[in-house]
Specification:
- The complex is a heterodimer of chains A (277) and B (366).
- Chain A is 33% helix and 25% strand.
- Chain A is built from 10 helices and 12 strands.
- In chain A, a hairpin with a 2-residue loop joins β4 and β5.
- Chain A is globular and about 55 Å long.
- By secondary structure, chain B is mainly α.
- Chain B has a single domain, classed as ABC transporter involved in vitamin B12 uptake, BtuC (Orthogonal Bundle), CATH 1.10.3470.10.
- Chain B is built from 15 helices and 2 strands.
- In chain B, β1 and β2 form a beta hairpin.
- Chain B is globular, with a radius of gyration of 23 Å.
- The chains are: A alpha/beta (277), B mainly alpha (366).
C-alpha cells in the first residue's frame, strides 16, 4: 500500500498542501482531481519523492519512503511526468530502454530487451522504435514515455503470465497522462492502467476529465486549494455540489441505464439546488 | 478488486518492424580505435627526421622485446625520446578534452557546454599569468621546488580553485543547481579574464611573449617525465566517465526524470565535475588552453552515432585523441623548424567544421 498521512507542504508562507491523506492499495486506481493550482501535481511530486513534505509521512508497504534507496524505489514505482524534456536526440528504443536502467548494470540483458519489446507493442509505438524522439508528435512522445515507465516496472515473468499477481506490489504515478493524447489513446492508456491494476499494481493518476474518472477510477481524491474535500469512490465523491465547490462549475449528473456510472455534463444553470443529486 | 478480464498481450504480428540490434553502434568506436592506432604510428614517423612506417613498427616492437628487423639508432632515439612522449601526451589530452566535453554537455543538458564553462581554463590562465607576471616570492619558492613544472602546477591549482568556487556558489540547501552553475561559471570566467587582463596590462615584453605562447597551447613540453605525472589525471576521466553513461543518458530527462529512474543526480554532478576538473585542469596545465576539442568532438560523434552516452563518451575520447594528434602534427611540421601553437590549429579547423555542422543541422530541422 502506498500511504500518505497528513501531508503538508509549504513554500515560504504559502501552504500548497494542507494535511492531505491518501492511500492506494495494490489493485486500485486512485484519481486525483481538482482545479488548477489545487495542489494535484505537488501531491504527486511528494508521492514520487521529488519534494519532501514539510510535515506528514509517506509509506510504501509500511516502510517509510525515505528508507528506500533510489534504485530500490525506482524498481517499485514509476512516474509519468506531465512535461517530459529530453536534451538530446535519443531514439525511441533508447529512451524506452532507460526504463530498464534500475534493473541492469551496464549492458541490457535479454530480459530487459524482451520487456522493452513488449512495452513497445503494448503502447503501439513499435514502428517508431528507430525514430528520434524529438521528431515525434506530442501524443506519440507521451506514448514513448508511457512505454518507458511500463518497462521500468514490468518483469518478463508477468508479461509471459498475465494472470500472475505481482509481488511485491508496485506503483505507477501518472501526472495528467492523457494530455496530448487523442480520444483513442486516452482510453487505451487508461485501459493499460486498468490492466496493470488487475495484475496487482497501484495506480495514482491526476485526471481532468471527470467522465474518465467515473469510468476508470476506484477511488478519487478531490482537492481544493491544497485541502482534501473528499476521498472515496467516484460516485460518492463527485456529486454535483462537490464539483461545484471544487471547480466553481455547475454540472448535471446523468444516469444512463446501460452504464454503471453517471455522466458529468456541464450545464449553464448556476443554482446547485436544481441539479440532479 | 476483481481478477477477471485480464487483457492478453497483443499477439505477435507477422511482419514486425525490426528493433535495433544489440551493440548497434559498435562499428563507430571500433573504426575510431583502429584509426587512432594508424594516426599514432603515422605521426610519430613524421617530422624533421622522417621515419618510415615499417621502421616505426620495428622500433616499437623492439621495445616489447620482439625484434623483426634492423633498427637505426638515430631514428630510435628521435622516436623514443622526442616523438613518442609528445604523441602520447597529445592522445591523452585529446581524449580527456573530448570525453570531458561530452560529459559537460550531458551534465548541462546542452550541446553547447564545454569544460571551460565551469572556470577550468580561465582559472588556470589567471594563476599561470599571475605566476609569470608577479614573480612573487612564494612563486619563486615553488619554482625552486617544482622547477620547470611550477607554471603547470600554478595552472592546475588555478583550475581547481576556480571550479571549486563555481561549484560551491552554485549550491543551495545542499543541492547543486545546474542552471545556477552555468551562470556562476560565466561570472567567474568574466572575473578571471578581467584580472588576467589587468596582469597582462602590467606585464613587460618578455612576459607578454611567455603569456601569449602559453595561452595558445602547445605540446612542446612533452617528455616521459611529464607524461608520467600527468597520465593518471588524464586517464581518469577517459576510463571512468564511460561508467557514468547510463546515468548521463537518464539525466537528459531532467533531474527529476533521472531521479525517478533511480539515478543519484547529486553524485553524478559531483563525479563529472571532479573528473573534468582533474583531467582538463592537468591538460591545461601541461599544454595550455586548447579550444574547440571539448565542444566540437562530442557534436561530431552524436551526428555519427546518436545521442547514447555509451557510444558518445568513448567515441569523443577516441576522436578527440585522433584530432589532437593530427593538430599537433600540423603544429610542429607546417612552419618547421618553428612551431605553431596548437590552439590556433584546432581553432582554425574546428570553427569552420562547427559552422558547417550548425548550418547542416538547421537545414535538416527545417
Amino acid at each position: 500500500m502506498l500511504e500518505a498521512n497528513h501531508i503538508t507542504y509549504r513554500i515560504g508562507r504559502k501552504t500548497l498542501l494542507d494535511s492531505v491523506s491518501l492511500s492506494v492499495k495494490p489493485g486500485e486506481l486512485v484519481a486525483v482531481v481538482g482545479a488548477n493550482g489545487a495542489g494535484k501535481s505537488t501531491l504527486l511530486k511528494i508521492l514520487s519523492r521529488d519534494h519532501l513534505p514539510t510535515s506528514g509521512n509517506l509509506f510504501l508497504d509500511q516502510k517509510l519512503i525515505s528508507r528506500f534507496s533510489a534504485v530500490e524505489l525506482a524498481r517499485r514505482r514509476a512516474v509519468l511526468a506531465q512535461q517530459n524534456t529530453l536534451a538530446f536526440n535519443f531514439s525511441v528504443y533508447e529512451l524506452v530502454m532507460m526504463g530498464r536502467y534500475p534493473h541492469f548494470d551496464s549492458q541490457p540483458r535479454t530480459e530487459d530487451r524482451a520487456v522493452v519489446d513488449y512495452t513497445l507493442d503494448r503502447t503501439g509505438i513499435r514502428h517508431l522504435a528507430t525514430r528520434s524522439v524529438p521528431t515525434l508528435s506530442g501524443g506519440e512522445q507521451q506514448r514513448v514515455h508511457l512505454a518507458k515507465v511500463l518497462a521500468q516496472l514490468m518483469t518478463l515473468e508477468e508479461i509471459n503470465d498475465p494472470k500472475k499477481l505481482i509481488r511485491p506490489a508496485r506503483y505507477l504515478l501518472l501526472d495528467e497522462p492523457t494530455t496530448g493524447l487523442d480520444l483513442y489513446y486516452q482510453h487505451s492508456l487508461l485501459e493499460v492502467a486498468q490492466d496493470l491494476k488487475q495484475r496487482g499494481y497501484g495506480v495514482v493518476a491526476i485526471l481532468h476529465d471527470l467522465n474518465l474518472v467515473m469510468q476508470y477510477a476506484d477511488k478519487v481524491l478531490l482537492l481544493k486549494e491544497g485541502q482534501a474535500l473528499a476521498f472515496g469512490p467516484p460516485a460518492r465523491v463527485l456529486t454535483a455540489e462537490a464539483i461545484l465547490e471544487a471547480f466553481r462549475l455547475p454540472v448535471t449528473l446523468i444516469q444512463q441505464p446501460e452504464l454503471d456510472y453517471p455522466l458529468v455534463i456541464h450545464t449553464r444553470q448556476t443554482n446547485p439546488l436544481f441539479l440532479n443529486t | 478488486m476483481t481478477q477477471a478480464e485480464i487483457q492478453t498481450p497483443p499477439t505477435q504480428a507477422a511482419a514486425r518492424p525490426e528493433l535495433p540490434r544489440r551493440h548497434a553502434n559498435w562499428w563507430l568506436n571500433s573504426t575510431l580505435a583502429i584509426l587512432l592506432v594508424l594516426v599514432v604510428i603515422g605521426s610519430v614517423g613524421i617530422g624533421a627526421i622522417s621515419i618510415p612506417v615499417p621502421s616505426v613498427v620495428a622500433i616499437l616492437l623492439k621495445q616489447v622485446g620482439w625484434v623483426i628487423g634492423p633498427v637505426e639508432p638515430q631514428q630510435e632515439t628521435v622516436l623514443l625520446i622526442i616523438r613518442l612522449p609528445r604523441v602520447l601526451l597529445g592522445v591523452l589530452i585529446g581524449a580527456t578534452l573530448g570525453v570531458s566535453g561530452a560529459a559537460m554537455q550531458g551534465l548541462f543538458r546542452n550541446p553547447l557546454a564545454d569544460p571551460g564553462l565551469i572556470g577550468i581554463s580561465s582559472g588556470a590562465s589567471l594563476l599561470a599569468v599571475l605566476m609569470i607576471v608577479l614573480q612573487l616570492k612564494l612563486f619563486r619558492d615553488i619554482s625552486s621546488f617544482a622547477g620547470l613544472y611550477a607554471l603547470s602546477l600554478a595552472a592546475f591549482v588555478g583550475a581547481v580553485l576556480a571550479t571549486l568556487l563555481v561549484y560551491s556558489l552554485a549550491r543551495r540547501n545542499g543541492r547543486t543547481i545546474i542552471s545556477l552553475m552555468l551562470l556562476v561559471g560565466i561570472a567567474i570566467n568574466i572575473l578571471c579574464e578581467a584580472l588576467r587582463g589587468l596582469l597582462v596590462y602590467l606585464a613587460d615584453d618578455a612576459q607578454l611573449r611567455t603569456i601569449s605562447n602559453w595561452s595558445l597551447g602547445s605540446l612542446g613540453g612533452a617528455s616521459w617525465e611529464v607524461l608520467q605525472v600527468a597520465s593518471p589525471f588524464l586517464l581518469a576521466p577517459v576510463l571512468l566517465m564511460p561508467r557514468l553513461s547510463k546515468s548521463m543518458n537518464a539525466f537528459a530527462l531532467g533531474e527529476s526524470g533521472a531521479g525517478h529512474l533511480g539515478v543519484d543526480a547529486a553524485r553524478l554532478k559531483r563525479n563529472v565535475v571532479l573528473l573534468t576538473t582533474l583531467g582538463v585542469g592537468v591538460a591545461v596545465a601541461v599544454s595550455g588552453v586548447i579550444g574547440f576539442v571539448g565542444l566540437v568532438i562530442p557534436h561530431l560523434i552524436r551526428l555519427l552515432g546518436g545521442a547514447n552516452h555509451r557510444v558518445v563518451l568513448p567515441g569523443a575520447a577516441l576522436l578527440g585523441a585522433i584530432v589532437l594528434t593530427l593538430a599537433d602534427l600540423a603544429a610542429r611540421t607546417i612552419v618547421a623548424p618553428a612551431e605553431l601553437p596548437i590552439g590556433i590549429i584546432t581553432g582554425i579547423i574546428g570553427a569552420p567544421v562547427f559552422l558547417y555542422m550548425l548550418v547542416r543541422g538547421s537545414s535538416e530541422k527545417a
